[in-house]
Design a protein that fits this description.
mainly alpha, 8 helices
Amino acid sequence: MAGLYGRRWYAEHGETPDAVWLRELESMTPEEAILGWRACRDSGDSYVPMLPQFIGRVRDALKARHAQGPHLKQRMDPELEAMHKAAAKRAVAELPPPDEERMKRLKHAEHPGKAAVAEMRRLIARSQ
């Protein structure tokens, strides 16, 4: 936001975001935060938005997107798509290497689909 409003942003909100802004931003999806930033950029307003105004812009942008209707196929925003791809690559890189013994069990299981689902459930339960 400082890129949009410069010194006015820092004068209004300080060098680091306060806990309330952080909590609200963390509760948003990346897409919602980007929509809010773009709404501020496109508004042409010279004043620095307060948190309720920013949240309102996000809400209005989401309503406008939904008003287009589900019948229109929407392409994901290129910036957002790149963020999702990068996050997916990081998540895959953090996965542990495959366990050869487990892979053999899955390969030779009578119902490989059921075995794979059971294995996924076990891994999820263990990670929680």
